[in-house]
Amino acid sequence: MVLAPTEKVVLGSIAFAIFWVLAVFPAVPFLPIGRTSGSLLGATLMVIFRVTTPDQAYAAIDLSILGLLFGTMVVSIYLEQADMFKYLGVLLSWKSRGAKDLLCRICLVSAISSALFTNDTSCVVLTEFVLKIARQNNVPPHPFLLALASSANIGSSATPIGNPQNLVIAIQSSLSFREFLFGLLPAMLVGVLVNALILLCMYWRLLSVKKDEGIALDEVISEEDATSHRFSPAAMSHPTAQNSEELNTMLETMNTWSSPSSNGSTNYAETLRNRISSKQSNFQGNLRGGIESTRNSNASKEGVVAGDDISQPWEEEFRSRRISRSALNDNDEMVNDDGGGIPVQPQEEKEEGGLTKPWKRLLWKVCVYIVTLGMLIAFLVGLNMSWTALTAALALMVLDFKDSQPCLQKVSYPLLIFFVGMFITVDGFNRTGIPSTLWNITEPHARINHVGGIIVLTLVILVLSNVASNVPTVLLLGGRVAASAAVISPGQEKRAWLILAWVSTVAGNLSLLGSAANLIVCEQARRAQFFGYNLSFWSHLMFGVPSTLIVAAIGLLLIRG
């Protein structure tokens, strides 16, 4: 394709540049409107500038990808409600043999869950579990956070539903779920192993620190913590005085082994102590304000017992009791200060007449797992992935047998809208002829029938994935890379798609900005109220560069057409 007229090239480049800036830096000072609005702005400018027509813009939207993405989101939400991720969190600490063992478990669990439930979902629900594990081992969390994010990216490469760019590749290449899985599974498994070995080598000394004997690792994840994770910003229970004393003791222990070589663990401990003190004072103020507000509200109501008569006993009752979770079952328990417990039934298990039906909850969980397993089997036998995912999502809504609006509200509609705008923007940029011209220059040196060509293609994908993000990179390069390989042989065309999927996914580990999963882990860790930790750009880069290059190279050796 030759270059379009100069006016079209200039205007199309401006629209794409605006989209790129807002996609990579969503909070730029001069236009802090975010990725989703930036995507729609780029798409609208492509139409306003007449780089593409309205009909061409509508045609550029790939409904198959949107349907598959929506369906897998809904299925993941129902799996989360069925406690799938709670069980994964408990698995992380079950009969663990120390920090190194935990790091390997995090790599394995993160990779498998990402392949089946997308990398972003796994990172959202597992980040706080990882922070608690680091706290129990008196180890700064960044080795575990790096293990979570990097393994999630590598593991998501194995399936079309593992990440957004794989969805695009699966639809555009017409590769079946089975071809995709068996084509990349060996590379994924070896990649996760190599990634774990790199982490162990880099942080062996840090992970060798002995934890306090008084801390039981099997208690790292209580059932309350496991069931409190939802698809929302990190939120944990407010610290009590007892928790603060325990954590202060732990922080003092951390300071005894802190040194300049321990990557800022002293500052990390002091930051935690200051944050906890601030959170505790805020919580106490909010608690007093809430009690006073309730007292005033009760006093203002007519036809009800006077507020002053009931507020004082209620306040004393509130202070003397707390809600905890029973570790033996799914019931709540009202615990008095003297240790006595009064069971309180969860809302979802109450039926008419006050009777409880825990077996219904168990039956529903089993149905959710069966439907999910059926969806994966349907993928493997080659059924249409978009309609299979939508059918599974609808089946779960029906089996839930109640209004699905609360579930649907958890779907990431901004992500779907972002994809719509991105499809139009990238299609418009392709119509300027710039990507084709640049590819025509690169293509003779990037053919995959020789080692030099594979190296050049890999470097191009790595750079573009970290500069323009991996999904736009796949949209820009996918068809061109496949067409170049098809000239060699049909088998090489399939191999080209798999190489693109592998490298564009592993490229997300290169820097903190290379993958949405990295940003999710970083943000969730920073916002965690009790165990907050700031994963810096440079600490990620020091691990990301060698890991990405080594894992990508080894994986390429295992990919066959």
Q: What percent strand?
A: under 5%
Tally of DSSP helical segments:
25
**Poorly predicted segments:** 212-273, 275-281, 283-287, 289-356
Order of helices and strands: HHHHHHHHHHHHHHHEEEHHHHHHHHHH
Q: How would the global form be characterised? A: globular
- The share of residues in helices is 55-70%
Q: Count every beta strand, where a strand is a DSSP E run of 2 or more residues.
A: 3
Q: Average pLDDT value?
A: 76
In terms of structural class, how would the helical and strand content be classed? mainly alpha
Round the Cα radius of gyration to an integer and report it: 26 Å
What does the largest sheet look like? 3 strands, antiparallel
Strand order of the largest sheet: 1-2-3
The first-to-last residue Cα distance is 28 Å
Structure description:
The protein has 561 residues and is an all-alpha fold. Helices cover 69% and strands 2% of the residues. The protein contains 25 helices and three strands. It has a three-stranded antiparallel beta sheet with strand order 1-2-3. A hairpin with a 4-residue loop joins β2 (332-336) and β3 (341-344). The protein is globular and about 65 Å long.
Quick recap:
This protein is mainly alpha-helical and 561 residues long.
Tags for this model:
561 residues; mainly alpha; 3-stranded antiparallel beta sheet; globular; single chain; 25 helices; 3 strands
Element layout with pairings:
Blueprint: H1 6-24, H2 34-48, H3 54-60, H4 63-81, H5 84-93, H6 99-117, H7 119-136, H8 142-156, H9 164-173, H10 177-202, H11 204-207, H12 223-227, H13 241-257, H14 265-299, H15 307-320, E1 321-325, E2 332-336, E3 341-344, H16 358-380, H17 385-400, H18 405-408, H19 413-431, H20 434-442, H21 451-467, H22 470-486, H23 490-506, H24 516-527, H25 537-558
Helix pairs in contact: 1-2, 1-19, 2-19, 3-19, 4-9, 4-17, 5-6, 5-7, 6-7, 6-8, 6-10, 7-8, 7-24, 8-10, 8-24, 9-22, 9-23, 10-25, 13-14, 14-15, 16-17, 21-22, 21-23, 22-23, 23-25
